[in-house]
Amino acid sequence: QIQGMPYGNCLLLSDGPVNNSTGIPFFYVTPKDSTVADLLKNPVASLTLPEADGNFCRKNVIDPEDPRCARLTLTGQMVTVPPEEVEFAKQAMFSRHPVVRKWPRSYEWFFMKMNIEHIWLQSWYGEVSAIAVEE
What distance in Å separates the CA atoms of residue 56 and residue 69, rounded to the nearest whole number? Predict the structure, then answer.
């Protein structure tokens, strides 16, 4: 009923093992998830990350979803991780989210990543700044 309409979903992500963050979001997904099925047809996606660990919100005891807390939005293309990157994606995901090792194998899990095309930082009520992808 909502075919072709955008909607959000929560997915576990990792940008690398704790000591080797890359800035590239990796995901461990199943084609049985309607979000993933949609991404395989149309790979355009956005990802918003709240300032959950920032000093301002923690110091002032402000909810990370409060507009005063920064949020970063990445947009780009979601692609299947190529074979030569799968081992790194596995280390990235499993080191940060060990529970995924126990997920049922019958769900045909595989790795995707976002090829980032645009980055926006919203740092206050509505203020948005573009950030170069190279940064």
Answer: 7
- Which two tokens mark 26? 């990796």
List the domains of the chain with CATH numbers.
13-131 (2.30.110.10)
* pLDDT value at residue 62: 76
C-alpha to C-alpha distance for 86 and 107, rounded to whole angstroms: 18
Q: Are 131 and 120 in contact (CB under 8 A)?
A: yes
What residues are paired with 130 via a beta bridge?
120
| Eight-class DSSP state of 11 | -
DSSP strand pairing (128-131 vs 71-80): unpaired
Pairwise CA distance, residues 116 & 22, whole Å: 12
Which residue in the block uniquely carries the two structure tokens 């660990």?
53
Enter the tokens of residue 46.
Answer: 């956005």
Do the Cβ atoms of 32 and 108 come closer than 8 Å? Answer: yes
| Tokens standing for residue 90 | 């596995």
> For 5-44, how does the pLDDT look when each residue is reduced to its tens digit (9 = 90+)?
777 888 899 999 988 999 999 999 999 998 898 899 999 9
Handedness of CA 48, 119, 85, 81 (dihedral sign): positive
